[in-house]
Structure formats: C-alpha cells, structure tokens
C-alpha cells in the first residue's frame, strides 16, 4: 500500500481517538465557583474580546486576576481573541463580560473542543507527519508505525481533549522549530521556536538546547565571517519576533513587567499540589517548603537546575549535531521539570502519572483505554521493529520532545524486568487510587505515592539520557566498527 | 495448507486488529445512542421481571418485544449480569432509564458479544482460496479481516446507534464459513439459530433453502428440518409472536427512506404530481396530503402512481431473486455461488422490501467482503456498494457531536478499502471506471450540501427533509447499479468457474 494512504490512515485514527476522547468530561465540569482549565480558557476569550490590550494582565474592576487571570504569554492571548471572535459569531452569550462566568452548555463544549481540533490539525499533526517522513530512519513501514505511536500518545490527547488545554499549539510550534533546524533552515526554526516560547513559557525548558545548538553551529562556521553573519541573522529573527509579539505591551514599561510577573509567579511556593519532581518528593521526608525561606528555595532550585543542565548544554555546544540536539532537549526538559520552581504536573505530559488529575476530571475511562492502547501499540509495533534494528539509541529519536516515559526495549533482562515491574506498579496504583479509600491519617497517600514513583523514574531517565549524550561518540564509533 | 505465514505471526496481527477496534469501541461508550438503547433496556427489564409466557404481551413501554424468542432468551441471560451494574435498569416501569452504569453495561455487552464476530471472521479467513501476499498489508486475509472487523457500518450502527448486529453477523458469517468448509449440518444449524435470533434474516433464507436442497437433496433435508423444529419448541404463542415480529401496519418506507427502489418510486410519484399540478392535469385538492416526507411512520397513499401494498412488495422481491435462485439450482457453483446468491437475496429484499431499514444494507455488504478479496469484479461491486451503503447510514447519526466521528471513520474505511483492493488487483488496469469514480466522488459535494450548506439556508425550515431525500435517492442509484452488476456477474461467471473445475 502506498505511503500516502498509510499516513492518512494514521492521521484519521489519531483524529478519531482525539474526538472520541473529547466526548468525555472536561476539567471543572459542573464545579462552581472556580470550575477548571476549561473555564479559564473561556474566561480568557471573554477578557481579550471585551477589554483593551493594556488591561489584559492587570487587576482592574473588569478583570479580576484571582479568577483565572491570564498567565501565559501574549500569543495565547491573541489566540483566545481569535477564538472569541468566532464565539461571538456563533453565540454572543459565550463571551459576555462578567455574565458568561461559568457558562456551560453542550454546544459551547462542542465549540471549544472544535477549536482544539482545528489548531491540532493546523499545527501539530503536519509537524509530526513531516518529522516522521524526514527524520525517521528505516523503511516506510517503520516511519508510519512511529507516526501512529506519536499521534496516539495518550498524554497529549487526554490533556488537550479531555482536561482541556492547547498544548498541541506550543508543542507543534516547537516541533516545527526542530524540523527547521533539522532541515538546515535555521531562521525558520528559530522563528517557530520563538513563537512557541511566546505561546507558553513552559517552552523555556527547551530553550537552552536550541540556543546551544545554534550557537555551537555558528561557532563551528567560524566566529569571524560566515558564522558571525549567521548568528546575527538568527538573533535578529528572534528579537524581531519577540518585538512583534509583545508590540502592544511595549508602549509602557510597566506592561512587560506585569506580564512577566504573571508568567513567572515567584510569589507562589516551591510547588503546588502533587508534582513528580524533586521538591515535592523531598518534602515527604524534610519539610523544605516551610524550613527554608523563599529566597533560599529560589536559589536552591535555580542552582540545581543549572547544575543538571550544564553538562548536556556544554556537550551540545561543542558538538552541535542533530542527535546531540535531541538528547539535549530531553535532558534539559527533564532537568527543568525535576528541579525548577512552581512546576505543574502537566509540564511532563505523561499520561500515567497524571492519574489523580484525570480521575478528578472524570476522565478515568479514556485514560485507561488510551494508555492501554498506547502501551500495547508501542510494544507491538516497536518490538516488531526492534528485531531489525538493534540499537537502543534508536529510541532516542522517538523520544525527542515529548519527554515521556517509554518502555525500554533493551535486550538486557534487567531492563525488561524493571519495565514489567513499573507497569505492574502503575496498574496497582491506578487501581488503588480509584477504588480504595486512603487511611484517614494520610488522605493524600495515593497521589503522593504516584508522584514519588514517577519522580524515581524521571531521576533514572535523566541520569540515563545524560550518560547517553555525554558518552555518545564512543558508542557510535563502536557501532560503525561492527557494521 | 495454503497459509504462507507461520501461525504465531498470523495470530498476532489478528489479535492486534481486534484489540484495536475494541479500544475504539470503548472510547465511543459516551457517544450518542438512539432509542434502540431504551428498546434493549426495556427488553432486559421485561425478560428479567416477567415469566416467559408474558414476554410478547407486555406493553408498558412502546418498544415491545419484536425479535424472535431466542433473542429474548439472550436478553434474559444478559439481565442476570446487568444486576451487578445497576438494578434499577431491570424495572420495567423505569422508562428511558439511562444511568452511567446502565450505559456502561449495555455498551460493554455489545463489545463483548462481538467476540462471536471475531471468531467468525477468523474462520472466514481460513476459507480464502489463496492467501499469499508479498507483505502483511497485501495479504487477502489481512484485508478481509480489516474490512470486516473495522467495517464502518457495523461500528456506527452497533457502537453508537446501538444494536447487536456484530454478534448476529458473527453467527451468519460462521454459518457461511461452515458451508465453505463443507460442514453443512453446522452451517444449517447456525442459520436456524440465526433466524430465531432476528427474523430479518428471512431475506436470505431462500438462498439457503435452494442451495441445501439442490446440493444435498432429500436424504439430508430431513436433518436440516429437525434443528428448526427443535428450536421452534422454545417459542411460545405463535400468532402473538408473529404479530409482534411482522408489524405490517407500518408504512412502505421508514421515516428516513432506505435507498431502495421505493425511494425512487416515491420521488417519481412526487415529481409527477408536481408536474401534473403545474400543467393543470391534476386538481391539487384531490391529492392526499404530502406526508411521505414527514418523520412519522404511517401508511400513506401515492398521488399519481399506483399505491404499493405489502403483497406487491413481496411479489416484487420474489421476482427479483427468482432468476438467481434458478441459476443456483441449475448450475450450483459450490459455496461461492451460494454466497453470491445470498448477497443477491439480501440486496433484492433490500431493494423491494416493505418498510426496509437502511441498516439492512449491511446484510449485503458484509458477506460480499468475502467475495471482494478474491475476484476483481466483486471488488468493484463491493467498493460501490459499501461506500454508497455506508454513506446512506449517515442520517442515523444526526447529532453535531458525532459528525466528525462518522466522517473520519467513513474516510478511514473508504481509503483502506480503495487502496488495499486496488493493490490486490493491481494487474488489469484501474478497478473503477471513470463513471463509477465520479459517482463516488459526488458523495463529497452531497455531504457538504446536506450537512453544511443546507442547514444555513432558508429552506431548512420549510423543507427540512430535503437533504434526507437527496441522500436516499443518490444512494439508491448506486445500490441499484451494484445490484444489476452483481446479477450480471452471477449469470455470466458460472461458466468460467465450471471450466476451471473441469480442468
């Protein structure tokens, strides 16, 4: 069968599962007074449509920042504005200032879900297809299998079409950035990534690898001459893009400061809720949240993040090739997730370990189905492929930016045993979280257990990936020798 | 045997496809369900709460039991499991009861019952004449498995609209497979069971009757008769059951016209009446009120052309399938000829029957899949029939939420069937001629007009059933064309296969 038909079948399957998940509940459904992320997105449409630009990020009588104030960069705000225009055409009640708070209806849900699907089809899915087509080694069947696995990744589907968010936009734009860099279109890549950054500040997790890769590439081309020109062009592209995105906010110096204040809430604590990172897990043993002052916490998290991110970034700087770039992306995002300040669990986009969140949203059924399907699919398709390509490093291509935990199909038995053990632990925790009551002394027992289990996995991954990246040249040489 | 691939490989892809489609079905648990959901809940309740003698007399709900006794026993069995999900669904008075547990149970029961269908598909794959392919995606058994397991019509009707067709078609396909494998007693037994599960399969009983009589004459016909009578002893008061099973009070056409001859007949009648009034040949006051396009199921009169009675449709149906039956009697072509005759019977009854549901097209499409992976001409007919037939199921899901799902799934099935069958029959030029391709492409503008453009126009209020009418007429053309081609292939192909037999 021809390639185009196989790829289109993958896309159709991906779209079908996305829309089928969207039938289920969203975050905060029917839960006044605050509701959830769905209401937040609707509220942003209301705010951006009805208020002038300079009021969007400020606390005014019309704009109560305590009720889901805007805390993403300007591009999200513009996106909400466009959606609001469409909403106004369909039903003005959806974006009525103040009056539309907590608005919930079947047709509104369809509209909101449709906006997610639209941006997904426009930005994320073409990026995935192009990526698999150009940057996957192997036969066309393997490329199609990879595309299918990526498109059916439960984390993104459940968060975007279940809980309700627009992660596909920022991830898609970042993926276009990676595509650009891979094809040698540095300017296009920088432009795309800058847009991604201006959509969600979470993309900062990936910014260091982008920076180091481009800088390293320019240095390699010689700092006097071509390299310098390249660097100048890239810097200009980035600055101009930033300027264009922030243009309405540049008139008054107070504006950008306020926006930054909303984007990086250092006023909040080291973490909120149960997150699978170091601080939350450490808090179980030592109550660092209360022991250390806020300044110390900030300093500590900054220092540790930097510590974990430096080796991989320096390596990338010295050897700017695509393989190093992808590994650096994984390492950088893991480091930021584990050690930085005010991390939300959604930052990891990992299906299994967002279990408590998803159960709260009433998304248990799609979570079970999509996770099982994805696990089964990855095992089935990838194990069939693994027989032909033996390198465990191959999996790195696959992981790139989605920074999730994939079953390791290493030939060593220890890893295999560890995988099955992890699966069993995951299944057991899922089961107990849903069906058993936690003991009264520890009401948060299950979410905490889930976080700790995940944290241990992520710690293991960051060590593994750092090792792979730093020791890579020797391995590749040995591969070439045996081939 | 002919199987090229080792057994372990063979099972794993089948299992993967079956599991994949089951996952998809699970995701659709929360989708829209029609009144058929309440129908089956009512049947669960009444079989659980009342003694068997009263099942066909119970009339608290408007959805009385109108399937044969064996299906009632099936619902009785299910009701015992239903107790563990939600006891309230088993109370007859709880009309339209649809708690989340009820929905979960009913949906899961359809998904689990599909296991019968999976087994039947596996057996059908074993009956293929040759199963060699360069790679997995080109193997006839793989293509057949996808065409059956991922059949668009079955997924839409069973897992969204809500019915138990998967399990019933599983029994039918198993019976066909048994005939292919020369296990005729089992095949006949399975068909008798099927008739007692859903009487709509009477449509294809003539094919079974003629084939079995012809090939196994009189000595074996006694064995054929006895399972029938044994099962019929399970039934209760026959006249009452029959009156529930065959409600002829309903009209010639369903609320939405199935794309058959009568749809074309109705539209011709309407066209003549409009022309007649325009040219002052008819008096507008003497014409009966135009209630054909109303959503109500009732008897009505045609204005210009003669009215059609149930007897007339029966005669037309019998006349349409008679040539095929004669052909099979005179020149039986083995199991494949029988299958072709079966499809023609199903399609003939669909075309000319009384109060035909558009879902009945599945009875022709599913068995035709078996023939489609083996012969070029059948693949052509299958493509036209399946795409048109599946598209005609669209009005079953009229909610906005299900619109993307039905379009995506239809595209999925269509692209797969087109490309896989094209690859399978690569030699010999294009599979569809330009006229057929244009007709099928015409479905795209039809869909755009009916579901996207028309609702925004002024006429949506005055003629709300115009899109439905357009859909059924356009599809009726395709179905009629497929019927004619199928007949031609039956009446001409027997000679060539006989030559192969004698060689």
From TrEMBL, chain A:
GO terms for molecular function: dolichyl pyrophosphate Man9GlcNAc2 alpha-1,3-glucosyltransferase activity. It is found in: Endoplasmic reticulum membrane. It is a multi-pass membrane protein. It catalyses: an alpha-D-Man-(1->2)-alpha-D-Man-(1->2)-alpha-D-Man-(1->3)-[alpha-D-Man-(1->2)-alpha-D-Man-(1->3)-[alpha-D-Man-(1->2)-alpha-D-Man-(1->6)]-alpha-D-Man-(1->6)]-beta-D-Man-(1->4)-beta-D-GlcNAc-(1->4)-alpha-D-GlcNAc-diphospho-di-trans,poly-cis-dolichol + a di-trans,poly-cis-dolichyl beta-D-glucosyl phosphate = an alpha-D-Glc-(1->3)-alpha-D-Man-(1->2)-alpha-D-Man-(1->2)-alpha-D-Man-(1->3)-[alpha-D-Man-(1->2)-alpha-D-Man-(1->3)-[alpha-D-Man-(1->2)-alpha-D-Man-(1->6)]-alpha-D-Man-(1->6)]-beta-D-Man-(1->4)-beta-D-GlcNAc-(1->4)-alpha-D-GlcNAc-diphospho-di-trans,poly-cis-dolichol + a di-trans,poly-cis-dolichyl phosphate + H(+). It is an enzyme of class 2 (transferase). It comes from the Eukaryota. Residues 1-22 form the signal peptide. Its EC number is 2.4.1.-. Pathway: Protein modification; protein glycosylation. Keywords: Endoplasmic reticulum, Glycosyltransferase, Membrane, Signal, Transferase, Transmembrane, Transmembrane helix. The chain crosses the membrane at residues 110-132, 144-161, 173-197, 227-249, 298-318, 325-344, 364-385, 417-436, 448-467. One of its GO terms (cellular component) is endoplasmic reticulum membrane. Belongs to the ALG6/ALG8 glucosyltransferase family. Dolichyl pyrophosphate Man9GlcNAc2 alpha-1,3-glucosyltransferase that operates in the biosynthetic pathway of dolichol-linked oligosaccharides, the glycan precursors employed in protein asparagine (N)-glycosylation. The assembly of dolichol-linked oligosaccharides begins on the cytosolic side of the endoplasmic reticulum membrane and finishes in its lumen. The sequential addition of sugars to dolichol pyrophosphate produces dolichol-linked oligosaccharides containing fourteen sugars, including two GlcNAcs, nine mannoses and three glucoses. This is Alpha-1,3-glucosyltransferase. It comes from Cyprinus carpio.
From TrEMBL, chain B:
One of its GO terms (molecular function) is dolichyl pyrophosphate Glc1Man9GlcNAc2 alpha-1,3-glucosyltransferase activity. It comes from the Eukaryota. It is found in: Endoplasmic reticulum membrane. It holds the Pfam family Alg6_Alg8. InterPro entries: Glyco_trans_ALG6/ALG8. Keywords: Endoplasmic reticulum, Glycosyltransferase, Membrane, Transferase, Transmembrane, Transmembrane helix. It is a multi-pass membrane protein. Pathway: Protein modification; protein glycosylation. The keyword ATP-binding does not apply. This is Alpha-1,3-glucosyltransferase. It comes from Cyprinus carpio.
């Amino acid at each position: 069968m021809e390639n185009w038909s196989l790829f289109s079948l993958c896309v159709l399957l991906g779209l079908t599962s996305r829309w089928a998940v969207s039938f289920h509940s969203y975050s905060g459904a029917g839960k006044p007074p605050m509701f959830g992320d769905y209401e937040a997105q609707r509220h942003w449409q209301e705010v951006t449509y009805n208020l002038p630009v300079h009021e969007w990020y400020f606390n005014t009588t019309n704009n109560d920042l305590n009720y889901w104030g805007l805390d993403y960069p300007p591009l999200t705000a513009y996106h909400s504005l466009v959606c609001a225009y469409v909403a106004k055409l369909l039903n003005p009640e959806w974006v009525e200032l103040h009056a539309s708070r907590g608005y919930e209806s079947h047709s509104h849900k369809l509209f909101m879900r449709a906006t997610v699907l639209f941006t997904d089809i426009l930005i994320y899915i073409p990026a995935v297809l192009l990526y698999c087509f150009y940057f996957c080694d192997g036969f066309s069947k393997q490329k199609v299998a990879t595309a299918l696995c990526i498109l059916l990744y439960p984390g993104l589907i459940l968060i975007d079409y279940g809980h309700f968010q627009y992660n596909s936009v920022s991830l898609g734009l970042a993926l276009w950035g990676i595509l650009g860099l891979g094809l040698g279109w540095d300017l296009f890549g920088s432009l795309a990534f800058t847009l991604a950054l201006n959509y969600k500040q979470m993309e900062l997790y990936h910014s260091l690898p982008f920076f180091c890769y481009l800088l390293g590439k320019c240095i390699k081309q010689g700092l006097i001459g071509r390299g310098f020109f390249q660097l100048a062009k890239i810097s200009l592209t980035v600055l101009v893009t930033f300027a264009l995105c922030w243009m309405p906010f540049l008139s008054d110096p107070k504006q950008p400061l306020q926006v930054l204040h909303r984007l990086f809430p250092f006023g909040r604590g080291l973490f909120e809720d149960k997150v699978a990172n170091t601080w939350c897990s450490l808090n179980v043993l030592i109550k660092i949240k209360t022991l250390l002052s806020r300044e110390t916490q900030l300093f500590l998290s900054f220092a540790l993040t930097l510590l974990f991110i430096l080796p991989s970034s320096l390596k990338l700087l010295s050897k700017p090739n695509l393989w190093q770039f992808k590994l650096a992306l994984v390492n950088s995002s893991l480091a930021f997730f584990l050690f930085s300040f005010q991390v939300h669990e959604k930052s990891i986009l990992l299906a299994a370990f967002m279990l408590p969140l998803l159960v709260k949203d009433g998304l248990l059924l799609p979570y079970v189905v999509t996770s099982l399907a994805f696990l089964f699919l990855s095992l089935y398709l990838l194990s069939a492929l693994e027989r032909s390509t033996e390198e465990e490093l191959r999996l790195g291509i696959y992981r790139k930016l989605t920074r999730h935990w994939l079953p390791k199909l290493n030939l060593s038995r220890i890893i295999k045993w560890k995988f099955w053990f992890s699966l069993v632990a995951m299944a057991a925790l899922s089961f107990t979280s849903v069906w058993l009551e936690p003991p009264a002394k520890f009401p948060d027992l299950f979410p905490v257990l889930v976080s700790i289990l995940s944290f241990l996995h992520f710690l293991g991954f960051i060590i593994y990936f750092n090792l792979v990246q730093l020791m890579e040249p020797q391995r590749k040489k040995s591969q070439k020798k045996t081939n | 045997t002919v199987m090229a691939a080792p057994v372990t490989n063979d099972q794993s892809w089948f299992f993967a496809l079956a599991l994949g489609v089951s996952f998809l079905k699970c995701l659709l648990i929360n989708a829209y369900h029609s009144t058929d959901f309440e129908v089956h809940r009512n049947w669960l309740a009444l079989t659980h709460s009342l003694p068997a003698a009263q099942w066909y007399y119970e009339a608290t709900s408007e959805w009385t039991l109108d399937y044969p006794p064996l299906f009632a026993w099936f619902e009785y069995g299910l009701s015992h499991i239903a107790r563990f999900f939600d006891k309230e669904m088993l109370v007859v008075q709880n009309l339209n009861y649809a708690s989340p547990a009820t929905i979960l149970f009913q949906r899961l029961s359809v998904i689990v019952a599909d296991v019968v269908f999976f087994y039947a598909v596996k057996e059908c794959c074993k009956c293929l004449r040759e199963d060699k392919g360069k790679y997995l995606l080109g193997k006839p058994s793989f293509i057949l498995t996808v065409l059956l397991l991922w059949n668009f019509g079955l997924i839409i009707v069973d897992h969204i609209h809500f019915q138990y067709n998967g399990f019933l078609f599983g029994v039918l396909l198993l019976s066909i497979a048994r005939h292919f494998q020369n296990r005729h007693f089992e095949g006949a037994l399975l068909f008798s069971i099927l008739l007692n599960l859903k009487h709509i399969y009477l449509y294809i009983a003539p094919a079974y009757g003629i084939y079995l009589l012809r090939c196994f004459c009189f000595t074996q016909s006694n064995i054929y008769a006895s399972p029938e009578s044994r099962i019929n002893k399970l039934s209760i008061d026959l006249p009452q059951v029959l009156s529930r099973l065959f409600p002829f009070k309903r009209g010639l056409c369903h609320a939405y016209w199935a794309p058959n001859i009568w749809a074309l007949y109705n539209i011709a009648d309407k066209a003549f009446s409009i022309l007649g009034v325009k040219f002052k040949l008819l008096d507008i006051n003497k014409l009966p009120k135009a209630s054909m396009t109303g959503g109500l199921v009732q008897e009505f009169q045609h204005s210009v052309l003669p009215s059609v009675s149930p007897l007339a449709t029966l005669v037309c149906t019998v006349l349409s399938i008679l040539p095929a039956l004669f052909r099979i009697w005179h020149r039986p072509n083995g199991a494949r000829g029988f299958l072709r005759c079966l499809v023609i019977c199903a399609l003939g009854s669909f075309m000319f029957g009384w109060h035909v549901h558009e879902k009945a097209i599945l009875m022709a499409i599913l068995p035709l899949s078996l023939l489609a992976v083996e012969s070029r001409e059948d693949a052509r007919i299958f493509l036209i029939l399946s795409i048109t037939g599946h598209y005609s199921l669209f009005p079953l899901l009229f909610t906005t939420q299900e619109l993307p799902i039905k379009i995506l799934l239809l595209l999925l099935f269509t692209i797969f069937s087109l490309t896989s069958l094209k690859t399978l029959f690569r030699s010999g030029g294009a599979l569809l001629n330009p006229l057929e391709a244009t007709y099928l492409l015409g479905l795209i503008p039809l869909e755009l007009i009916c579901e996207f453009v028309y609702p925004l126009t002024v006429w949506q209020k005055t003629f709300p059933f115009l899109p439905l009418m357009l859909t059924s007429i356009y599809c009726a053309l395709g179905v009629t064309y497929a019927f004619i081609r199928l007949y031609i292939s039956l009446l001409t192909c027997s000679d060539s296969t006989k030559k192969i037999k004698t060689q």
